[in-house]
Structures are given as C-alpha cells and as structure tokens.
Design a protein that fits this description.
This protein has 271 residues and is of the alpha+beta class. It has 10 helices and 11 strands. The strands form 3 sheets. A 6-stranded antiparallel beta sheet has the order 1-2-5-6-4-3, with helices on both faces. Strands 7-9-10 form a 3-stranded antiparallel beta sheet. Strands 8-11 form a two-stranded antiparallel sheet. The model is unreliable at 72-77 (pLDDT under 50).
Length: 271
C-alpha cells in the first residue's frame, strides 16, 4: 500500500512501523516500537479517560502514544487484541488524507503494529494539542459566550471533517476537542473511512454525536442545555435554512429509546 506523502515504513524490535519522515530516529529512540510498554512505564495521568496514553517530551515537540483498543462488550474480553493487520496504518492514512483535504485533525507521526498470539496489537503516536478540552469538559464548565463559541467551533470542525469526505464511525463528545485558541479538532479516526462527501454519512455521524450528548444529559443533567443541540445545528448548517431544519427534524426524531432504557438501568459515567 502506498504511504501518504512524508512517511516512511520500517521494522524494529518485532514491530512494523510507519513514521513521519524526519522524526524516525527520535521516535524510535523514545521506544515507540513498543506502545504498550511505553504506556505502562510513563502513563499520562492528567489525560485519564481519553484511552490509555503516554506522553513523550522530545526536542521536536510533545507527542501522545495511544494503544488502539476495542470498545463494547467484546472489548472487555479482548481489550487490545485486534484481528485487523492494517488498523493502525489505516488510521494514520485516513488522518493524513483528511488533513490534506482541510480537516482539523491531529498530526499523526507514527503507526505501530505488533504481531501477537491470535492477532495484533496496535499503537498510534500523534502530536499533543496542549491545553485542549473535549466537549464533555466544555459542557461541564463553559457558560454564556464561552459555551456558544465552543459549540460553534466544534460544529465548524465537524463540517470540515465531512467536507473532507470522512465518515467518523465513533463521533462523540470525547472525540471533539477545543484547543487553547478555541479552535475545534476532531480526533480518533480509528476505523474511519474517507471518500466523497455524502449527506447521509454526515447525518449518521451527527446522530452518533447527538446520542453522546443525550447520554451525558442522562448522566449529568446540569451539564447539558436544551439549546446546545440547536446551536450546534445552526453552526453546522452555516446559514442554510433547509439544512438547519433537516438537522432539527433529525434531532427531534432521534429518541434513542433503547439507549435511554439501558442508561436508566446502568447509569453512564463520563471520566
């Protein structure tokens, strides 16, 4: 498979790696060939709740090492085991292409794959967005103008993602960040696809995001305003009244009944 421009492929310590050209030696010397080992030795406790992460302070910048894990019920059994040989490289490729098309996404500098008994372990290294907050943190703390600007910035980031043709299969409040300058960034493009922009794909992504908002509202009613979704839809529609009405109608029709029942029985928690 052809790599995105500016990346090289290599092998080290039993791992297959795709690395950002110019950073190969620094990343390898830091131990990125073994992401799980790095995370075990130097976890980033201040980023608890955003998956398993380690932080690398290098002369070239600050980077986060993430182990790719599996969610859902199956993930509780095979947390880090994957049967997809190209999973890490796939996320790197989609993220690099999305960035080239103008999406606000992190800079991924390494994808690591290690063969293990029964499958593969994957890791990804990306440049850290220092001081960034996800939409859960924003919902809990921001009010008034700050909240409205954050929602607008997050909507603009999602618009850019969809304009780039990305189908984000896990778009949720934890995967939309606001950086220190207030700009929105969409993270975690694991298993995502990229192609031509499609309205149906975008709407499916937005319903996932709304479900995440509804889940937070169930867990923490004080954190979610009834106006948040409307403000997001208005910013996403960018003045297109037909589009705005369509998004509002989708939101009203999405009751998430089974999800609400499950959340009532097993109250969700947001780290």
């Amino acid at each position: 498979m052809e790599l995105p421009e500016g990346y090289v492929r290599t092998e080290r310590e039993g791992a297959r790696l795709v690395l950002r050209a110019g950073l190969e030696e620094a990343l390898l010397a830091a131990g990125v060939a073994d992401p799980a080992g790095l995370i075990a030795r130097q976890p980033a406790p201040d980023l608890k709740g955003r998956a398993s992460l380690a932080r690398l302070e290098l002369p070239e910048g600050t980077f986060l090492v993430r182990a790719l894990t599996r969610g859902g019920l199956l993930g509780k059994v095979v947390r880090s085991l994957s049967w997809e040989a190209g999973r890490a490289e796939g996320e790197l490729r989609v993220t690099a292409e999305a960035a080239a098309r103008g999406a606000a996404v992190p800079e991924v500098v390494a994808a690591v794959t290690r063969s293990v008994s029964g499958g593969f372990h994957h890791g990804l290294v990306s440049r850290e967005l220092k001081g960034a907050r996800d939409l859960v943190a924003v919902a809990r703390a921001a009010r008034g103008t700050e909240r409205r600007l954050a929602i607008r910035a997050s909507a603009e980031a999602v618009v850019a993602l969809h304009a780039a043709g990305v189908d984000h299969v896990d778009l949720n409040l934890k995967n939309v960040l606001l950086d220190r300058e207030g700009r929105g960034v969409v993270i975690d493009l694991d298993r995502c696809r990229i192609g031509e922009p499609k309205a149906t794909t975008a709407e499916a992504n937005l319903l996932r995001l709304l479900r995440s908002w509804t889940k937070l509202q169930t867990a923490e009613p004080q954190s979610v305003s009834p106006l948040d979704g409307v403000r997001f839809a208005r910013a996403y529609a960018k003045g297109d009244r037909v589009r705005f009405r369509r998004l509002v109608e989708l939101g009203r029709a999405a009751s998430f009944r089974l999800n609400r029942l499950r959340w009532a029985l097993f109250p969700p928690r947001f780290a």
